[in-house]
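Appendix B. One record, verbatim.
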Amino acid sequence: MDGDRLLLNDSISRRSALLGSAAFGAVFALAAQPIQAQTAIVTPSDGLAAGAVSVKTKDGKEMMAYRAMPASGSGFGTILVTQEIFGVHAHIADICRRFAKVGYYAIAPDLYFRLGDATKVGDAQTLISDFVSRTPDAQVMGDFDSTAAFAKAESKADTSKLGITGFCWGGRIAWLYSAHSPAIKAAVAWYGPLGSRAPAKNPIDVVNELHGPVLGLYGGADAGIPQEAVERMRVALKESGNPAATKSSIHVYPDTPHAFNADYRPSYRKEAAEDGWKRCLAWFRTNGVA
């Protein structure tokens, strides 16, 4: 695997990401929609140090990641960015640059790297069978541990100010990693599935284990994540005796679909996406990730 793949040519990687769909439960069936290039946001890398890096995992492998941070300075708050089901494509790299533009060190590891390049897969069932179902949660947790260690070793990031965010598949992972890592100060989960991956643990199963409070951003018209599931999660958080859980919050955008932040797909909703981004940044600042 070479670094050029993670640098990502926009026209190829965005198209590759969109050709696939996913149906891990009802949620991922909503993920595949044709590109609308006119809405795609491209954040320039001027003033940033941005590109592919190699992270050594706990099992001794070299995992590629996309990393962005301000070109000068150090002590940056650190954001782990979790991919959508499609892998680390151009949109995820752009999210890293958006964080870097406001002063963060942001890094998105390729969590599928042992299995191949998901951004080049054009078949929905292949994504599910060959990537999602073969990427265990425990392995993902370990890979993020390795990514945080890499960030700390670079001496630019301040990993005492560590946060995680993720989208769709990655939104679920953001909940789980907040329960896994004592180092997490806060998390933001964008429309992450709250259940359905039996027999694995799901976000609603780990509310008592959260180390950092989580902001959940959900669409009221998300056909794959029903409002009943969101309300159950709210109740579980409220009734938990865990301070990180009771401090967590879920915001729902009425009449808004799944993947409303995915500016390269028709599901994109500009107003909700921009409001969600503001809430995301404020959540990290308020909870010690800045």
